Every structure is written in C-alpha cells, then in structure tokens.
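If it is no trouble, can you show me the amino acids of a protein and the tokens describing how it folds?
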Amino acid sequence: MVNAHRNLAGITRCGTGLSLSFAPASRAIVSTSSDSTMSPSPDKVPESNVHETQDALDVRHPFREGAKFAGIQFAPFDLPWERRLQTLATFLLVTWFMGGWIVTIYIFYRLLCCRLLFWIPLLYFAWLYLDFNQHNRGGRRFQWIRELWIYSYWCDYFPVDLIKTHDLPAERNYLFGYHPHGIAGVGALCSFLTEALGFSEKFPGITVHLLTTRLAYIWPVAREFFMALGASNASKENIKYITQSSTGNAIVLVVGGASESMEARPGGTRLVLKNRKGFIKMALRTGAYLVPVYGFGENNLFEQLIPNPPGSLIRRGQRWLQKRTGIVPVFFVGRGLANYTIGWMPRRHPIHVVVGKPLPVTQIAEPSEVEIDSLHLQYLDALTELFDSHKDQYGYGGTNLQFI
C-alpha cells in the first residue's frame, strides 16, 4: 500500500513517492520440472530458500500441481478455501489501490449524465473544495474501517507479521522510517494502515499516521478511503500539524520513495538513503524520536521485467520522467488471481516488519547542517544495527545494507 515529490522538496526528497508500475505478460517465473522419477511421499514437500515464494512451492508440491498452458502456470484446484479467500482479498485491494480512481471517475461521469442524480457529484465536489486540505491536517481516520475483516485475509496472504522490539512511551511523538520501498510498500500498508497485525495492541497509546504522496488525495472517493485508514500527505505542513496537536503519534515515512522502487529486486538491500536528510531535519524541528523500521521480504513480491542498472538508458528514462511528472514507471510482473506467472498481484512471500529502537532526538527549531548530518549518521547506524541483528533470522545472512 506508496512516496511525485515536488511538494516534499522542502522536507527532504523523502516521503513516499508514487511509482507507476506496468505488469504485462512475461516469462514464467516458476519451474514445474522435476528430476525425480520416484513417486513422492504425501508428507514430503519441496525444500526452498528463504527468497522463494509460496506460489513456487505450490507448483513443486508433489500433490499440488495446476495446469500449465502457453507458458502460464495456473493455480491448483485443491487449494484450501482459506487460501482462496486470501487471494481474492488481495486481488480486490490491490486492484482498488491501483485503479480505484478510474472506477470512481467513471461512476461520477455517469451520475453527471443522469438527470435525476447529477446533483450527487456536484454536491460532493462542492464539499471537496471546502475539505481539500484535510490531507495536510492529519487526514480523517475511522477506526472501524481500519479493523475490517478483509485486511486480515490480505495480511495472511503473504503473510506479514509486525515485530515489536522496544516499547514506545505515549508521552512522545515518533517518526518511523520504513525501508525498503519495494514496488508497492506492502509491509508498510499492512502494518500501519490496518489493525490486522495489531498495531494498537502492540503499541498502546500510539496513533499511527502513514504519510504518502499527495497524488493519493486528488482523486474523488479514493482520498476518503485513504484518509479513513489513517493516511495523510507527506508534507512539512502535515508533519508539523500532527506533532503539534498532541503526543503519542507515530508518523511513518517510506523514506526511499519512488526512487527506491527502481532498486526493488528479490533479495535486494539497496536503499536510497545516503542523501535523504529532510526527514532528519523534520525530526529535529519537531523533537520526534526516530524509529528505524525494516521490512524483510518487501523486495521479494515482484520481479522487474526490464533490467535498469544505474546509468542505463532505461534508468535515465525513468529519472527523466520522475523529474517532470513525479511518477516513476516501473515495469514489473507478479501473479494473477488464478495463475502464478503473470499479473499485477504480489506473490506470496513472508514480510517481517521489524520496528526498531527509538533514537532520542532533541528538538531544535532551526538545526544546522552539522546537527542534521550528525543525526543522519546516527540513524544510518541504528538502521544497520537493526538489519544486522535480524538478518540471519529472516534469511538475509551474508548480506549487508547498501546506502545509495
């Protein structure tokens, strides 16, 4: 569920940028071949490495093999209903996140063309004009929407788990830095936009605010949905509003933004963070404690179709479009509703979202460059320590973070 950053140039070049992703048909990403000629035991399931998806394991399971046609591997028919519901919930939510704005525009157009109902969109747009800046005032959350049952199926699809390492006293405000962005920031969406993983129970007294690109709040109806989940705009104005209104707030920024989506590949640990200091400056100005957060497995949900190494023609084209539109075109492939080969759905792969130790911050109204650089280095060290202390447990042993 996420950081188009001209409005954040004053903060950071941080926040959550928007990556425009394309998922055309592509090569098969799983293998169904087997060298064994013996009849397998029903209890024997294939071994896997930690970066292999559950979809690939299903295909290789001796008693769970779906049909394959034209290079497309279809899902088996004997999957449990629980799995089917998880897949359906994920399909519906991902489709809404990616294209819900198209549906709402079409519905509004049809209403405008109806003599009896044309007043409905006119009334909404009049209210929208008066309410337009609400995304810079903390949004408008509804707890019951965050607690809808569909989110539990969505989070169990991967699954995603939220790991707490330290208490967060409600007498302070916090600024979470979530890493990596991946293609869609799914770990951040599941952990901080819903209560499916029990954020409020694990961090009592803390109200979480996931800040995203302003483009999410210009579309009718879709903006209401995002704000109802607790999301709001990644802007200096909004951060100041939230931190000045009360204590016990946790602001979440996907710091690498859309630029980091270009680095998203299975097992990848490259983070766009070396020169991202705007969120550090805002932490100093507001006195919010910094909390590093890492989503182990975030980069394993999709594959990028076209190689785009730094300096390549593709990468230069992506940078050119980002500078002019704020949108990064990322060509990716995931899976479909009933197949494991093509589609815009993420693959089943565990995501372990680890919330680290809060880094104390002394409030400074106008911090100097030296003070910003010093705190930035402390944050990089804290994030590295968080990653290194958990990487063996979650399958990243032998790898290190790379700050670019």
Summary: Residues 320 and 345 are 27 Å apart (CA to CA). The first helix runs from residue 54 to 60.
